[in-house]
Fold these 2 entries.
Entry 1:
Amino acid sequence: MMLKIKRVPTVVSNYQKEEVGEAAPRTVGGCGRNCLKSCCIQDAKLPLYAFKKIDKVTEKDLAIHECQEELPMAFLDSLVLGEWEDRMQRGLFRYDVTACETKVIPGECGFIAQLNEGRHLKKRPTEFRVDKVLQPFDENKFNFTKVGQEEVLFQFEASEDGEVQFYPNAPIDVDNYPSFVAINVSPIEYGHVLLIPRIFECLPQRIDHESFLLALHMAAEAANPYFRLGYNSLGAFATINHLHFQAYYLAMPFPIEKAPTKKIATSNGGVKVSELLKYPVRGLVFEGGDTLEDLSKIVSDACISLQNNNIPYNVLISDCGTQVFLLPQCYAEKQALGEVDAELLDTQVNPAVWEISGHMVLKRKKDFDEASEANAWRLLAEVSLSEERFQEVNAIIFEAIALTEELDDNVQCLPKDDSVDSSTYPTVVAGSQECVVLQ
Amino acid sequence: MESIKKSFDEFYSHYARESLEELSEEIPFTITDPSLSNHPIIFASHAFLNITGFTRDEVLGRSGSMFQGSATCRRSVMEIREAVREERETNVVLVNYRKNGTPFWVFLTVSPVFCVKSGAVVHFVAVQVPLKLRVYGGGGSVVVNHDFMFRCCRKEVCSDSLVELDRVSSRNQVLDLEHDDDDVTDLESEEPREASDDERRSAVTAMDNIFSVLTHYSELTGRLVCRKRCSNPAVGLLSSSLIISLGRIKQSFVLTNPHLPDMPIVYASDAFMKLTGYTRDEVLGRNCRFLGGRNTDDSALQLIRESIKTEKLCTVRILNYRKDKSSFWNLLHISPVRDATGKVAYFVGVQIEDAYKIEEYRQCWKPDMKQLSVVGAVKAAVRSLSMSAGSSKT
């Protein structure tokens, strides 16, 4: 049995075709549309921002921040927002997101609601398989190597000589596995971009250590707690199976960031692991760490264990890359199994990382006008794993991170994992209240 | 430093300093000015300096975030940031750091100071009552390198980031954890501290006393302030959080409000003052046309009017005049800016002085990437910071 849901795919590029798999009419040879294929890439030039890689966070490394004014480019304001505004003035977006009304929903949590009637228009619903978190890259489907150069804002990489570098016009060295930052032509906020690690390697949507560290570096580079990155796995509302993170700027605390937490463990590397409390979606919070690598390592190990165990999840990177929320979810599966309330489905809200974090993009005026904390909570509660399942999933995660990270004594106060035999995980079929994962 | 002194004196006169000096011995508190770039501290009491170990010169002009570090609770910082955004009082318990890097718990009460006449927030007062020591495990001194904290501050000062407020760069926080010795860990593992009733009471009394001095002296300067907003904010007034955000953008630009008669300037950046030679008071509330003069080209003005009428962006090269009557070619980029309702709330005009006097090129100028960056940063700030309506705290 294969679990599928029908949904309107998000158009992230102007080069995305109406239907996945539909034969794309393409002109051949130096095709004249400045694409990223070999026909056009040879002579292409894109800005290149090389961040300073901090292997060990020492005082010396911080010196660079003393004089940010002297840096060639302030990363967030000048580069991301400036290049983004340029693409906006060039009319590359499907709509003007700043013309979409946004409000804070009254209540304790402060959910943020945006009315975005344009995002899903002109698209037919497509079937998506939601029961496989890892799927091989399929070059016949839309992927980011098919976007036009004008949609790419800049190349983003670690600096070779350890200093921040900016080159307004750098050649694209395909053999050097460049990572790109591109616009999302269906933005949900001003400055909405995609980070595509090692774009020409055509990696499927799957977290690996190196890529996750790159995403943390981008958050750190922005040096602004309101510039966040997000990740959706397949089965958790990613629609494109080509490795990518999303990011945008919104100067509001997200409800998930305000939720209280309970610390459950601290790793050797100083990473604090907590459980979210009083929030409709159950999840883990990873914070701090002696170095960015410490945090990156433990979170990516956790993500890898989830994807290897076929558990869909979302990740939010906030607070300049020092705080990461990890949220396993089961909405798509419930949806495929017909267990989601029709009323919720009618809203057509796809609970991906931003919705789960508390920034809801609503497609109907009615839902926007009637948006209440209770409604938002009800939707997100459907996304969450049950308490029992969450504890099982936690056990998997802690087993995985304990393999590589020695956890201190606190780890003993973790939920007992006697009952869990991890070898059975990929095929576990739980009761109807649970997330059902079928293979 | 001049602007910091002025920020205090213009509302309370320098006489108020003497009165505050008396309170100053007793109460650890600071006053900050959200209208100055980086929301700096403009007054710090003796008691506050004693507790933190900094000298006055090391503190004035800096952001309040300079006292925060790795053990400072993120949620408390978030709450302060929210209160500043919503221009309301708040109190939190959090960890601050002394100059020598040792952490200490404070009960922090923040209150906006409103201008009676305009309803604008002119200052924030922050009273920081240190919490009585309870048992710290571990003992021994905490060696957190304070040099690094200075860097945070410097970074804050230089930073171009948009709304980063009251906050140490988190990169630096990561560093701080390196000193993960007993005390810091203890601070972290300790349950969030509560202020005792006594501590709360003393904060309330302190705040009352400070406000009675401030309001008294504001009567003398004629620029009355109060603790509760006593008039609705004047039409077109920018929120202090928006002013703080805009203050971080280092280029020359102005915001004008098309919904007010004659479309006056409602915000002008420091760089704009420098470029044109005017002071802020001389330009706020006026239409931009005062920049024009004898040889200003009518066709450029026509383009500007057209762009405003149609709510479209435009770039023109126009001859403008400084206060001292000297002229300069202004490569001006204008763009509408929408607020959270999706409607055009302002126009942003970004000026770049154009050294090339080749008028023929006027029609084909494209906006500079620096100008686009300003437009982007302004759009993002205006949109985000107008979302508070019906906010989470009621």
Note: Chain B has 14 helices and eleven strands.
Entry 2:
Amino acid sequence: MIPLAFDYEVAESVDHAIELLGQHGEEAKLLAGGHSLLPIMKLRLAAPTVLIDLGRLSDLSYVRDEGDHLAIGAMTRQCDLERDQTLQEQCGLVAYTASLVGDPSVRHRGTIGGSVSHGDAASDLPSALLALDATFTVRGSNGERTVAAGDFFQDYLQTVLEPDEVLTEIRVPKLNGAGWSYKKFNRRAQDWAVVGVAAVVERSNGSISSARIGLTNMGSTPLRATAAESALAGADPSSVAEATGSADEGTSPSSDIAASAEYRRHLARVLSRRAVEEALSR
Amino acid sequence: MTEAPEKFVGGGVPRKEDPALVTGRANWTDNIKLPGMLHATLLRSPYAHARITSIDTSVAKEQPGVVAVFTGDDLAEEYDKNPQANPAAVTGYDLSLEERSNGGASVTETGDNTGGETVDEKTRTFVAWIVTEDLKVPNHWPIARGEVNFAGDIVAVVVATDRYKAQDALEFIDVEYEPMDVVTDLEEAVASGSPLVHENLGSNEAYTWNLDTGDIEDAFSNAALTVKERYIQQRLIPNAIETRGIVANPDPINGGYTLYSSTQVPHILKAVLSAYCGIPEQRLRIVAPDVGGGFGSKLNAYSEEVIGLVLARKLGVPIKWIEDRSENYLATIHGRGQVQDIEVAADSEGRIQGMRVKLLADMGAYLQVNTPGIPLLGAFMYPGVYTFPAYSFECTGVFTNKTPTDAYRGAGRPEAAFAIERIMDALARETGLDPAEVRRRNFYEPFDEPTTTPAGIQYDSGNYQMTLDRVLELADYEGLRAEQQRRRESGDPVQLGIGFSTYTEICGLAPSQVLAALGAGGAGWEMAKVQMLASGKVEVITGTTPHGQGHVTSWSQIAADALGVDVDDVEVLHGDTAIAPYGRDTYGSRSLPVGGVAVHLAAQKVVDKAKKIAAHMLEAAEGDIEFEGGTFSVVGSPDQNVTMQRVAGAAYLADNLPEGMEPVLSEEYFFDPPNFTFPFGAHICVTEVDTETGFVKIRDYFGVDDCGPVINPTIVDGQLHGGIAQGVAQALYEEAVYDEDGNLTTGSMVDYLIPGAPELPNYTLERTVTPSPSNALGVKGVGEAGTIGAPPAVINSIVDALSPYGITHIDMPASPWKVWQAIQDSQGRDPGTRDADRSGRPSQATDSATSMDPEAGSTNPDAPTGGDRT
Amino acid sequence: MRRIQMTVDGRAHVAEVEPRLLLLHHLRENLGIGGVHAGCNTTSCGACTVHLDGESVKSCTVLAVQADGHEVTTVRGIMDNGLWHPMQQAFHEAHGLQCGYCTPGMIMASISLLKEKPNATEQEIREGLEGNLCRCTGYENIVKAVQLVQQHSNGQAQPAS
């Protein structure tokens, strides 16, 4: 329950962080809120030799209205997302999903950038960002690039981030009247999701014009329920139950002490139905 | 009872314990820092069963800050430094083992066994409850020698200047293991050809213990109906939020030792450690500082305590060891862990004629202080609040390559209450009776004198109808059934469940002779000393050791009323064997009915003596003195009076005492109760079960409990709340899961699900008062009531909600996954992998005596079958 | 080793620490604050909860170096001139504690909760304390304690300390 010793560097700017990453190579890890990294270091499941603390980069903590989308600084904490008026009004899914992460003390430390970069499929925010078609701005020694959420998550705890790259910003579209929902299923409020489902549903003339569904903990990365999304496109709200029956298609959930793969698939279907129904009611 | 009107007893006096606790000024073991103190950390086996082929500590010894590193062999000679320190007669604990080793019973060890006193000759163990003559006792070295028997067994100890350095050095100890076959499952362990946890014992069966009354064969052969069920009591991890910890301090003056330990049982610890470590009892002082919860897990003597003392002796400096949570999960005892086969025979009216119980009880890899005795506490409780003519109980203790089990809140009794209360619902189903009615038909008539039970003990007093009637009103039972009916008819995906539990429990451990007869070493008395100081203030010394139960407040109330003083003028001292040399500690809901009663009786002795002095001071005959409200006065002349405080002052000054009277008011009482106490109650749990996801929400929890007269209602409510919470936790959330290699899968609070505030309900509680004839206060104890009453109420409620599906049982913990799976099963669907297999437990026999047909099992033939709701 | 400075319970402290030192251990071992407790070490139980710049955090999952330049408040720092904080008083009055080991963390989490949601409903109070585990009380009286503080701050008289 005590981490192995490491060297500690404080990044004074994003460029400084990139420089430090270049200097220390793959043994270095970025430290944001630390609520994914420090627990595994304490269990000695991770032992980076250098931690580069981004905690002083207060200029990476913001939510900005940029016309058709909102820009969120990577060091914005989950509690800040939860409370942010602009997010609540323009993209309630992010504010609400953030409020379900961990517990209040965790959310006082944990950041959106940390959640995304850690790339944990059981984490709530990534699947919500997936359902939102968010884009991520990353910067490295080769400059800045933008990655779509759908391209960002590669495998179990693996993202497209290069060893010297820093995630700096998350952009989410304004929902402009689209319905949304996040259904987190867990046994205790403080736990990771057994399964979570994020839904963004657009309506026109009483039917569903499009639906995007993000799945938490249904595989090695956060996933989209593409079959259900196709079935929902153009569907009548009365057929949601049928359309979401395919919400687990293409997923590969694990079996563990919380749930069997079969049960997770079942939950994905039930929660997708409930999420889409709730989104339609918003 | 006190003569004076009771002023404090029965009132919700705010706790005296709180100020230090709410301001962060408590004295936890980890807050103790002594000059020159070193820190110990322990290397633990990652294997559940393996031979240690080599250990190399040389690199670890070179690490910064490291003072010493020891293996089991390094310390083997240390435990017996003074083998004559404790003749067996002194401790009582050593006796049986000494005799057994000498008698060459089953406890053979390595070595040539020629009777020579080499270190390998003697069986080392912590067990103090010798349940049968032929109990198999494995050798239990504090640090393993040659072989490890569970994941978490200690392999080496590092002593360093601080905790971080000590922890780091563990990584440099090089151990080679040769893995051995592992057994984790109880039924596999007793099957022939099973790997043996301890090969030298020749079997995994530690003991078999029987209890038989009446003609059981006759009862079953003449029964109109029988119901047979199998229940699994999953392993639980007690989870005191403060982990264990010790500071062992060598005393340079008398050559003895002070051990600060986060323990419930300083007195038991003193006896066991004195014997184990060869420290003369008069040179060992145990201090339990503020203790952050126990729940049975600190009712023990542990390897780490021995290691701490031995290191303090060897190195001559204070040694601190603080358990971290992963160690707590591996190395502190677990609770429960039983397979229960229970069968009842009944007449056509649902009246029980006989009961058979057969248990397999998981001992884990070693025997801790009470390990084999825990199921015996349950043996007497399977008949519960029901009377019938024949009972047969058999329990086999089974070794497995897992953490040792021992007492966890309720200890044997929650297991028994679960089995009987679950099978009463099965009986209701079989007979078509309402669950309340089938219970009522089998209750004892109300009684206030000891009444013999099917298990051959005597319940002290009871009125089970009263608590059941009241809880039915409190819960609006008819209204609930109507709502349930509405939900069933409308096909609501969220179904309502109503679950009963009418429980009793055995408390107030215990009459010494009964304990001795059960092999538990005897000494179930408790000591209290009430001393009045020169100023008239009062000190109460108690042998109980509170760790959250509020004894300081409650004992003050008892003493204040008996002596007629203010509650704030009483201080209660405890938890230090130098202050309270005699005591039998806190466990088994014994503190009030034994220790609290001792306080009352000691205070009465003070009053009796004070009365003589008052008579002398008032120049009146003792028979003419009356005592009320703290004042002695002459009958008929109320102006002639003297206060208790003035009498105390006079007794102290001793210049005007009756001829031959000893100075001061200071009296001790050793109370050895004539019988146990048997609190009881009736609980109703109301659940909402989401049949689509399997999620269970406890909507309401109603309880009517009877623990006799109440000293402090606020504290009693608190005990019930916490007890029910832990019972709900067993029913819905918690399980220590092992994989087939014997690794604990639920090794942290992330995976072992202790419920939080959002998961638990409010508790709607009332009380009835049926005094116990077993003691002067009529009190019964309440520490475990909720934990005993709650699990069957919760599971009965879930099964009730799902009865339209023909579901008759759900294993604990009733996770959403299991509930969903049961619904799938009931509809003939393939739910895929079963968790029961994954956790290495025997699969549940859900088919029991009743059918799986969705229609057949319903208590309500009009209810929908559940249909295709998902 | 790294030099850090932080204000703890209103007093400035400077120390040289290893970067891996947890804030929990810095407070307990270096500053001698025994009212911050280790419980689970996996960010689950909240026994180690303190305030960092006025917000609850779990000090077992914060490095001491991360608190460099910040303000830390423990249960020992919330009293006002020796008078208990209303939350301390309420836990006492409502019997919101038994063994008391989770209590400092529970009190700090509760204060943080009401600061953010002064009018929290019972359900919101329960959810707001989701990260703090108590093994003794079953939570009902903890929830009542928080509600007592709400009642007091809504115009009713402060309890005497």
Note: Chain B has three domains: 36-180+242-292+298-331, 335-508+676-838, 525-671.
